[in-house]
Specification:
The chain is an alpha+beta fold. It is built from 12 helices and 30 strands. The strands form 8 sheets. Strands 4, 8, 9, 10, 11, 12, 13, 22 and 25 form a 9-stranded mixed sheet that branches. Strands 1-27-26-28-29-30 form a 6-stranded mixed sheet, with helices on both faces. Strands 5-7-6 form a 3-stranded antiparallel sheet. A hairpin with a 5-residue loop joins strand 17 and strand 18. Helix 2 crosses helix 8. The radius of gyration is 27 Å and the shape is elongated. About 18% of the residues have low confidence. It binds adenosine-5'-triphosphate and magnesium ion (3 copies). The site of adenosine-5'-triphosphate (ATP) has 16 residues, from strand 9, strand 22, strand 25 and helix 8. It is an enzyme of class 6 (ligase). It catalyses: tRNA(Pro) + L-proline + ATP = L-prolyl-tRNA(Pro) + AMP + diphosphate. This is Proline--tRNA ligase. InterPro entries: aa-tRNA-synt_IIb, aa-tRNA-synth_II, aa-tRNA-synth_II/BPL/LPL, Anticodon-bd, Anticodon-bd_dom_sf, Pro-tRNA-ligase_IIa, Pro-tRNA-synth_IIa_bac-type, Pro-tRNA_synthetase.
Length: 544
């Protein structure tokens, strides 16, 4: 049992002046978090309890699919990031030690974990592996914002799968979908799993887990049986109609899709949702096909003029996709498969792909709009918070970091990888966003800092009765916060509603007289009668 009289739980009447997001305002006001610099936050004891409950849910579900928890350092040699080709990322913090050696602060851990696997995995018998950790990530975000929704330092659960081949990766990926679906169900959040851009990770395909909330920086496009990420356009949100795209989009440090998006002044997510973009491309290739094109109208070749061949069943990216001469995959969906969409394929940064289409085709680009796009059903667009992201990496990291194994026939093969992230802080903030009311936070039961808030009103007798009840409730396996502070009832209730524990029991003079504590359910602020002061704990557990 925690006693509020000696707990560091500094509640505030006023939200910080710069706060706009509900979670920013309420998490500060409820005494859960405090800021120390731009995008830098401390978790105070009650907030940390929420964070760690989320961590525990994630841990249990990853262990259930065979994940092995470990810990890798934040500070790592810059060399690894140079080898993977990601040293140029702006968000990456770079520094030097006293001997002038170059280091980076990890913003994710593909480079480190792949290096370990490269050293220890020898044969096909050592695979598959699922490795994960909870570790601090450092990102020099251009716009830290909204309390803990976008910070420069945060804890991420990042998991990595290592498999023998594409089929193995597919299995590991599907296991993570099962685990992630369970994790987000257990948190009590409202959530969607959506198709997404592979972004800076590179790779063969990705999904994001999105929690709808007005404070979200992503837009989710939804139609029956369809959900995809429409990243908020960085610039002009208007359709970019019938735009002729010519030439090559080679911009150092940018994937093609980023270069094209920059050229058009739209977000990459919008471009991903755009109808046809057909361009000569270097690096990450994303092509959208509209109209009567069929997959076989598209020819892919690399810079040396070597052709991509159609992929076969069992090969990534699967039938309908293409494989480059050295195994690079390009996924293609024509309109018969996914109306109006081609989905991204990926290549190494130094890889040059030419996409040819029949002569005379015009290249149109437009952004997804509310009301467009899918199978005769209008699309709706909702703002959402990205709470998790899973990626099929393929051999994107095992090639530059040389992670290979010997197959059954003794041949050396690259390890196939997947990468899977979740931000517990964002889950906490998303829960605040989704369920708060005018009086404060209303935690989903699985995330609350305490299950039951027992509020004692009055002096010795009331306090003694409240304590006895709290002890009984704890014996039922629930966690209890006891408000034993000598404050006015109004102040105590206001704090309890701000903090948002799911059940509140009040023990005052009336309770002593009647022998029952009043019960209030936080969600909806609904009175639920009373429970006996003595022997009432089972009734509380039942309400739970
Ligand atoms: P965003 O698009 O919001 O910048 P991201 O795509 O860069 O996020 P990932 O690299 O996919 O993030 O990281 C995995 C998870 O880590 C995200 O889904 C999110 O839950 C969390 N996360 C990422 N960046 C931040 C941040 N700056 N602050 C808090 N959590 C974050
Ligand atoms: Mg980011
Ligand atoms: Mg993202
Ligand atoms: Mg992401």
């Amino acid at each position: 049992m925690h006693r509020q009289s000696n707990l560091l739980l500094p509640t505030e009447r006023q939200a910080p002046a710069d706060a706009e997001a509900i979670s920013h305002k309420l998490m500060v006001r409820a005494g859960l978090i405090r800021q120390i610099g731009s995008g830098l936050w401390s978790w105070l004891p009650a907030g940390w309890r929420v964070h760690e409950r989320i961590v525990q849910i994630i841990r249990e579900e990853l262990d259930a699919i065979g994940g092995q928890e470990m810990l890798m350092p934040v500070l790592v040699p810059a060399e690894l990031w140079k080898r993977s080709g990601r040293y140029g990322i702006d968000e990456l913090f770079k520094l030097r030690d006293r001997r002038d050696a170059e280091l980076v602060l990890s913003m994710t851990h593909e480079e480190v974990v792949t290096t370990h696997v490269a050293q220890v995995v020898r044969s096909y018998r050592d695979l598959p592996l699922i490795l994960y950790h909870f570790q601090t990530k450092e990102r020099d975000e251009p716009r830290p914002r909204a309390g803990v929704l976008r910070t420069r330092e945060f804890i991420m659960k990042d998991a990595y799968t290592f498999d023998r081949d594409a089929a193995g990766l597919e299995e590991g990926y599907q296991k993570h979908i099962v685990a992630y679906d369970r994790i987000f169900d257990r948190t009590g959040l409202e959530w969607y799993r959506v198709e997404s851009d592979v972004g800076m990770m590179g790779g063969l395909g990705a999904h994001e887990y999105m929690a709808p909330a007005p404070a979200g920086e992503n837009d989710v496009a939804l139609a029956p049986g369809y959900a995809a990420n429409v990243e908020v356009a960085s610039a002009d949100p208007q359709p970019v109609a019938e735009l002729q795209l010519e030439g090559e989009f080679h911009t150092p440090g940018m994937t093609t899709i980023e270069a094209v998006a920059t050229h058009l002044g739209v977000g990459t997510g919008n471009l991903l949702k755009a109808f046809p973009v057909i361009t000569e491309a270097r690096g990450l290739v994303t092509v959208f096909v509209r109209g009567d094109h069929r997959v076989n109208d598209i020819k892919l070749q690399n810079a040396l003029g070597e052709a991509f061949r159609p992929a076969e069943a069992g090969e990534l990216p699967g039938p309908g996709g293409f494989l480059g001469p050295t195994g690079q995959g390009v996924e293609v969906y024509d309109e018969a498969v996914t109306p109006g969409r081609y989905v991204a394929g990926a290549n190494r940064e130094d890889y040059h792909v030419v996409v040819e289409v029949p002569a005379g085709d015009r290249l149109d680009v437009r952004t997804v709009q509310e009301g467009d796009l899918v199978d005769g059903n209008p699309i709706t667009v909702e703002p959402a918070i990205e709470v998790g992201n899973i990626f099929k990496l393929g051999t994107r990291y095992s090639e530059p970091l040389d992670a290979t194994y010997l197959d059954v026939d003794g041949r050396e093969q690259f390890v196939w990888m997947g990468s899977y992230g979740i931000g517990p802080a964002r889950i906490a903030a998303a829960a605040v966003e989704q369920f708060a009311d005018d009086n404060g936070i209303s935690w989903p039961r699985a995330l609350a800092p305490w299950d039951v808030h027992v509020v004692a009103l009055g002096k010795e007798d009331e306090l003694a009765a409240a304590e006895a009840l709290a002890r009984e409730i704890e014996a039922e396996g629930l966690s209890v916060l006891l408000d034993d502070r000598p404050l006015r009832p109004g102040e105590k209730f206001a704090d309890a509603e701000l903090l948002g524990c799911p059940l509140r029991l009040t023990v005052g003079k009336r309770a002593l007289e009647s022998g029952t504590a009043e019960v209030q359910v936080r969600r909806g602020r609904e009175a639920r009668g009373g429970v006996p002061l003595q022997g009432g704990a089972p009734a509380v557990a039942e309400l739970w």
